[in-house]
Amino acid sequence: MKIEDYLSSLPNSxxxxxxxxxxxxxxxxxxxxxxxxxxxxxxxxxxGKGNSITIALEEFMxxxxxxxxxxxxxxxxxxxxxxxxxxxxxxxxxxxxxIADISDASVILFWFSDEKIxxxxxxxxxxxxxxxxxxxxxxxxxxxxxxxxxxxxxLNVVPFKKAxxxxxxxxxxxxxxxxxxxxxWEFADRYSKAIGSKNVENDRFLTILQTLVIWINAKNLGIxxxxxxxxxxxxxxxxxxxFFNIEVEHLLDH
Length: 254
Prior knowledge:
This protein is an alpha/beta fold. Helix content is 45%, strand content 15%. It contains ten helices and nine strands.
């Protein structure tokens, strides 16, 4: 089956990231990356169970932290956590992020894959106060150049800087003149580790898929190193097709 068919067969919660909880150490890495500080008002859009809120408050001493999610059970879990820790400058909202009030934010963690949600939120982010920081994971805000990168963490600061092209955006993210297999693997591996599960085999499979996606996108944009398909790319395309019945070669522009 084509990779699109494979992905569409997975539960929506996996594709959307709804069931993925970032580890506490990953959250700390993100906060250090963005230089979260005591004067910040931090929002986590799609906050899950809310560990990000308590870490931001207890360890990074932010002025205020708000978690927003459309899953009522996770919001309840977060509220109970705040009560247990007697934290008063944190809160959770059971809301749709596309209509939630985020006007006082200075730092926002935003990790979504739905293009409609991303498009909607970009227009909302652009109306926030200058200097507001938006952190994404893996993918940048569509059409805009990042202000800071420690892949897979990407930072855009309001007002956003328009990208001339997707090609320019990718070169900025990977900080290289061209993308070869080693670069694609390194960056895919960083992503897998950042969102990693306890199942190492799943992480390895995710790394292979993401490596091929990075390299194929680079090839199609004309920023892959060399004209030929590298042997490791050929091998992994073959492994996916032979052992998992997943076909990705059609994604290449021939």
